[in-house]
Amino acid sequence: xxxxxxxxxxxxxxxxxxxxxxxxxxxxxxxxxxxxxxxxxxxxxxxxxxxxxxxxxxxxxxxxxxxxxxxxxxxxxxxxxxxxxxxxxxxxxxxxxxxxxxxxxxxxxxxxxxxxxxxxxxxxxxxxxxxxxxxxxxxxxxxxxxxxxxxxxxxxxxxxxxxxxxxxxxxxxxxxxxxxxxxxxxxxxxxxxxxxxxxxxxxxxxxxxxxxxxxxxxxxxxxxx
Length: 225
What we know:
Blueprint: H1 3-20, H2 22-25, H3 32-40, E1 61-64, E2 67-69, H4 72-81, E3 89-93, H5 99-105, E4 110-115, H6 118-130, E5 136-140, E6 153-158, H7 167-171, E7 173-183, E8 190-197, E9 203-211
Parallel strand pairs: 3-4, 3-6, 4-5, 6-7
Antiparallel strand pairs: 1-2, 7-8, 8-9
């Protein structure tokens, strides 16, 4: 099968999984802009050569350093849940391969992405630059602390499971903005949550569905299972 054919099959798999989980996620279809971004971003470019056979399989793929590139359905769903707009400024915690940042960059004005593993931060920045994503800036740092210099953000997306909601991320979220984050410990139940910040600084949250993410690392990350 050609890359175009594999990408088309991946999009169908995402649509099938959206239909299967529609009662949990509360919708029958994802935003058309999100699906267009998934269709456009060359996912295979963000995966090491040894794993490119699985680039369009609807599942996570190892990228080294104990990390993975997330399942396409989860990338699409989390992008949709953060409610991106053309003028949005989004913070991503956990750059990983850079794929999620690229998908966001197709939709929003600016993406700031933080990665704690130096080698992954450097590799993702190189791929994003090579593919022309000038509206993504990658920083090697502890994402639990966010990136205060560019706050407040219209949305924050966390691509690793945390044991609790990081207070710095809530502080850096603009009123009306959304934080999308998996909460839970490795090897145990994790729930993908959406938090919306109210005008008075309080937050409203809802659970979306069970997920399985690598843990948020660093001094404030998930404790061992």
